[in-house]
């Protein structure tokens, strides 16, 4: 018996479903904003030692910040950003004399304010020996994202989708408002961790609600349009950051509107599918009757008195350990999550390292996601989930690998090719990321869906945690190797993910599995030669359900 049969009564994606779907999509704008806010509020612009860095002047001065043009020492390494030298000037030229023990550490800095009035990194001088603190904050956010994805997934399956989503809404709004009034680094990092936790809950739980809300024929649209709100959030962040260049005001402007989502306690219903799995058939029927009413359709009363979808027996995620084939599928999906997330977020974070305006680069990288998401809709209907994911992640990997060509072989005049390849890589990664959300949501059964997605996204955030370190390799590895190493790592990881995914089953035109047994039936139909037959049978089943009258039960 499958819940998807109920859509023959209430409609695949009626007016009430669209309303609820919009409710869970809009918060994703703020999920994207919080995830990539660090690109702007933690940005370290060009900087140098301030002339007043040294209070005492043992040699009588004058002291000044050395620049490239006026320093001509032989066999002397001058650190313009982190140290200041004692210098003497005669009437003809500036002569630099570096004496033993006369190199001083900077205590104050001057920042290039072309693009930023003030960032948290500028305000707290997170430069020189503290430059890794910005990376640490990004990692703390992704660690919170990781924990949130796992724990809220388990909470959602145990206590309900709505309660978990509301908890995430509270955590993404109030702590982030407090963030603008914090200067202490430990408190700042803790609040960013909480923000990451909230985003993990909003993204995972919201997506599951969306997938469970609509019928099989509209599931592609539900899965992909969800991602457009994420891209919209990134583009809005770029625009807001362009006009608001003080990090405190920027954070407040992009956070305060999220308070409106507290009203969801009254507006958002619980997932009927989850209620049925928990044996709460009466509550599920009330919500479905309301849905049918607003959709101007009808649903037979007491429908679930005769036909319970599942017993209310709890099924734990570790139940799959009894089935080696399912374990292997899970491992492949976990690897796909890790690598796709690492590449997706890594390419976004890398926008600040590209030549030109950080705002324009970030906006274009975000727009590339729109192209990738739109491509999903066009190809998923025709080719299915599995081939679209494999092709898109392979394209992303090859494009990332290709970035070494202009750096190593073509020279500075062809650096624009690096931007082109990076954009193609982002398009491919965006498409793969969108497909992976939909694909995973359809593979896992209802009894463990949110827990399984939580585990998948847990490892995705682990990949996301690695992204800042990989991107910042540029600061630690010199020469062409340092410039190309992050993109090569992204490329190799993506190619391997695509190859491993040939093992996974196709889910197009199939009912969502409700039990472990349903999931096992998926694995019996992974042979490519049978895909067409399976899809035809699924379509015929849907058509038969639509033709049935109320005298015949749709769950048979």
UniProtKB/TrEMBL annotation:
- Membrane-spanning residues: 20-44, 135-153, 165-187, 193-214, 221-243, 249-268, 359-381, 388-410, 416-439, 451-471, 483-504
Mode of membrane association: Multi-pass membrane protein
User: Is the keyword Zinc assigned to this protein?
Assistant: no
**Keywords annotated in UniProt:** Membrane, Transmembrane, Transmembrane helix
Which Gene3D superfamilies does this UniProt record tie to the protein?
A: MFS general substrate transporter like domains (1.20.1250.20)
CDD domains, alphabetically?
A: MFS_SLC22 (cd17317)
Q: Which compartments does it reside in?
A: Membrane
Q: Which PANTHER family match?
A: SOLUTE CARRIER FAMILY 22 MEMBER
* Name under which the protein is recorded: SLC22A4_5
Organism of derivation: Mytilus edulis (Blue mussel)
């Amino acid at each position: 018996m499958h819940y998807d049969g109920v859509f023959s009564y209430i409609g695949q994606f009626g007016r009430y479903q669209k309303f609820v779907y919009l409710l869970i999509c809009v918060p994703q704008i703020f999920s994207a904003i919080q995830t990539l806010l660090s690109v702007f509020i933690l940005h370290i612009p060009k900087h140098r030692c301030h002339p007043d860095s040294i209070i005492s002047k043992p040699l009588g001065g004058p002291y000044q910040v050395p620049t490239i043009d006026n320093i001509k020492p032989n066999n002397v390494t001058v650190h313009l950003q982190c140290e200041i030298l004692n210098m003497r000037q005669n009437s003809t030229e500036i002569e630099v004399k570096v004496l033993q023990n006369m190199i001083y550490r900077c205590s104050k800095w001057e920042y290039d304010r072309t693009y930023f009035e003030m960032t948290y990194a500028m305000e707290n001088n997170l430069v020189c020996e503290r430059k890794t603190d910005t990376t640490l904050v990004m990692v703390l956010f992704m660690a919170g994202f990781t924990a949130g994805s796992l724990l809220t997934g388990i909470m959602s399956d145990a206590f309900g989708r709505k309660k978990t989503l509301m908890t995430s809404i509270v955590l993404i709004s109030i702590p982030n408002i407090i963030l603008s009034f914090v200067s202490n680094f430990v408190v700042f990092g803790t609040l960013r961790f909480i923000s990451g936790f909230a985003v993990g809950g909003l993204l995972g739980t919201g997506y599951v609600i969306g997938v469970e809300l609509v019928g099989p024929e509209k599931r592609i649209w539900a899965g992909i349009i969800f991602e457009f709100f994420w891209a919209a959030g990134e583009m809005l962040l770029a625009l807001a950051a362009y006009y608001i260049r003080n990090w405190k005001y920027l954070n407040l402007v992009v956070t305060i509107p999220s308070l409106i989502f507290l009203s969801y306690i009254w507006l958002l219903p619980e997932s009927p599918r989850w209620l049925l799995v928990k044996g709460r058939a009466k509550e599920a029927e009330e919500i479905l009757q309301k849905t049918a009413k607003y959709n101007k359709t009808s649903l037979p009363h007491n429908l679930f008195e005769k036909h319970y979808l599942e017993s209310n027996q709890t099924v734990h995620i570790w139940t799959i350990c009894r089935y080696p084939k399912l374990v292997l599928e899970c491992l492949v999906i976990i690897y796909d999550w890790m690598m796709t997330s690492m590449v997706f977020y890594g390419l976004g974070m890398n926008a600040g390292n590209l030549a030109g305006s950080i705002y324009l680069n970030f906006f274009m990288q975000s727009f590339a996601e729109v192209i990738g998401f739109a491509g999903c809709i066009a190809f998923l209907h025709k080719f299915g989930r599995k081939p679209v994911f494999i092709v898109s992640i392979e394209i992303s990997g090859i494009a990332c690998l290709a970035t070494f060509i202009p750096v190593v072989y073509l020279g500075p005049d062809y650096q624009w090719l690096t931007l082109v390849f990076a954009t193609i890589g982002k398009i491919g990664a965006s498409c793969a990321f969108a497909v992976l959300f939909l694909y995973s949501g359809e593979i896992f059964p209802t009894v463990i869906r949110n827990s399984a997605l939580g585990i998948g996204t847990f490892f995705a955030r682990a990949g996301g945690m690695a992204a800042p370190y990989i991107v910042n390799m540029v600061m630690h590895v010199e020469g062409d190797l340092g410039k190309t190493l992050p993109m090569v790592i992204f490329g190799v990881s993506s190619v391997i993910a695509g190859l491993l995914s040939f093992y996974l089953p196709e889910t197009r035109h199939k009912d969502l599995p409700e039990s472990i047994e349903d999931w096992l039936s998926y694995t019996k139909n992974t042979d490519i030669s049978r895909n067409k037959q399976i899809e035809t049978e699924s379509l015929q089943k849907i058509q038969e359900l639509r033709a049935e009258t109320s005298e015949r039960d749709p769950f048979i």
